[in-house]
Amino acid sequence: MADNHEKVEVLNRLLVAASEKWGEEEAKNMKSAFELAAEAFCTVEAFTLKPMEEPAQQRSFFHQERKRYEHEKDEK
Predict the structure, then answer these.
(1) Residues in contact with 2: Cβ distance below 8 Å, sequence separation at least 6, in sequence order
(2) Measured on CA atoms in the order 20, 27, 40, 2, is the torsion positive or negative?
(3) pTM score of the predicted model
(4) Which pLDDT score is estimated for 9?
(5) Cβ–Cβ < 8 Å for 34, 15
(6) What residues does each domain of the chain span?
């Protein structure tokens, strides 16, 4: 579960941005949606992967696929 302080900070940033773009009344109407979004942002932000599980770490997938391809090619 996300830290409540972080969630409140994200929620406030969303409300300020919405107020600037659509006005304060519309931002208040959208508050429940922003609360859900803030919780989701904090949940995703708190999730961590091990270094070799990172999608940006090409070896995690492409290296394994290349090795599998080379192994299958050698068996033929």
Answers:
(1) 39, 42, 43, 45, 46
(2) positive
(3) 0.60
(4) 95
(5) yes
(6) 4-75
